[in-house]
Amino acid sequence: MIPAGFAGVEAQLWLWMVAMIRPGAAFLAAPVFGASFVPVQLRLIIALAIGIPALSATNFVLPAEGLASIEGFMMVAGEVMAGLAIGFAVQIGFSAAVLAGETIGNAMGLGFASMMDPASGQQNPMLGQFLTILATFLFLAIGGHLALAATIVESYRALPPGEAWLTAESIRGLVLFGGVLFAAGLSIALPVGFAILLVQIVMGMLARSAPQLNLFSVGMPAALLAGIVLLAIAAPVMGEAIVGVLQQGLEESRRLALG
User: Fold this and answer.
1) Does residue 227 form part of some domain?
2) Within a domain: residue 20?
């Protein structure tokens, strides 16, 4: 016979598991939280700390047949989809910095230079990694992690568990928002990339006027030096552009959270 004090433990544990699904899925797709260097245990604790009060604010009741049923499976699938969509919207804005770094690196002749990204565990362009670190600092500085947590809590009001299926219009908006990744990445890289392109045009004209000039021994150091100087000059402007695209990602995630 189960003691009276432990009679509702199983049901409470199931509620805790349901509370962790949506925040855990959002953190899995979101920047910073979804990095490989963040321990899974810490991610689960944060997801539980956010999910329990958010779930308590709703009138959620476990399916009569439990989670191991069609109704329970559909509820879990909806929670996962909602969480992934919220986190992925922020990740789209965050990835614009990587695209900008790759564009600038190719213009500087550093397309072959790559280093290991501790967040994803894969090889990324060197300048892309630099802008990723900058984007991480800016994301934390503007309180993006707190805004993401607040968005997850708000999503439980508009999309309560069991009714968390995104509409076709919301999914379409998320897909169209993916175009912001390319537009924002190019706009971030524009100040430096366009100036380096002008340097390469000048070096091409010099190569045509003086064929004996070794373009590789002169052009690449010139483009590299110009890129380093321009990066130092344009850093404040690029930082503002990265903050802007991060805020767009947070706004898109909030739009998805509100249904």
Assistant:
1) no
2) yes
3-state secondary structure of 210: coil
What's this model's pTM, rounded to 2 decimal places? 0.78
13, containing H or E segment? helix 9-29
Q: Residues 119-132: what's their mean pLDDT?
A: 69
Q: How many CA atoms lie within 13 A of 159 on its CB side?
A: 27
pLDDT more than 90, % of the chain: 0
Residue 46's alpha-carbon distances to 43, 82, 137, 242, 252, in angstroms, are 5, 18, 20, 26, 22
DSSP string for 138-178: HHHHTTHHHHHHHHHHHHHHHS-TT--PPPHHHHHHHHHHH
The answer to whether residue 3 sits within a structural domain is no
Residue range 22-41, pLDDT digits in tens: 888 888 888 888 777 788 88
Identify the domain containing residue 246 by its residue range.
8-188+239-257
pLDDT number for residue 216:
62
For residue 141, what are the CA distances in angstroms to 3, 13, 38? 49, 35, 19
Total tally of structural domains belonging to the chain: 1
For residue 170, is it within any domain?
A: yes
